Amino acid sequence: QVQVVESGGGLVQAGGSLRLSCVASGSIRSINTMGWYRRTPGKQRNLVADITSGDNTNYADSVKGRFTISRGNAENTMYLQMDSLKPEDTAVYYCNAIGRRSFGLEFNKWGQGTQVTVSS
After folding, report:
1. Which phi and psi (to 5°) does residue 9 adopt?
2. 9 close to 93: Cβ distance less than 8 angstroms
3. What distance in Å separates the CA atoms of residue 86 and residue 40, rounded to the nearest whole number?
4. How far is residue 2's CA from residue 78's CA, in Å, rounded to a whole number?
5. Are 113 and 91 in contact (CB under 8 A)?
6. 37, 25 in Cβ contact below 8 A?
7. Per-residue pLDDT for 73 more than 90?
8. Dist. CA 37–CA 94, nearest whole Å
9. 15 to each of 9, 11, 19, 80, how far by Cα in Å?
10. SS3 label, residue 88
11. Which residues contact 30 (CB under 8 A, 6 or more apart)?
């Protein structure tokens, strides 16, 4: 009923840039928080950055100064601008959205993931 879809991953060289996009759709009354998480082989999925409806942002220490999270013109969209990419940024990136359904109950949805690969 509520779906989250990411796009924008790809293969880039170290020092390059990528912009990830996320769109949430379905029976949504409001979205309170949207965030990006990433998972590397053998490791747990970890927070990269998130943003609230009030534009408060949080970043993992490893990406501060290089990544920028923002909300799009539509409130159900979100972007992650990734600059100065490093090989250690290689991971599957997941979009997460937390909010309320049209009938009032909270939802917590994840996208399918998009692969980001940074070559040295």
Report:
1. -70, 165
2. yes
3. 14
4. 16
5. no
6. no
7. no
8. 5
9. 15, 12, 14, 16
10. helix
11. 53, 75, 99, 100
Strands (E), the chain: 2-7, 10-13, 18-26, 28-39, 46-52, 57-59, 67-71, 77-82, 91-101, 106-110, 114-119
Q: Any idea what the Cα angle at residue 9 is, between residues 7 and 10, rounded to 5°?
A: 140
98 CB neighbour count, 10 Å cutoff: 16
Which residues lie below 8 Å from residue 99, measured CB to CB, with a gap of 6+? Answer: 24, 28, 29, 30, 31, 32, 33, 106, 107
User: pLDDT of 83-101, one tens digit each?
Assistant: 999 999 999 999 999 999 9
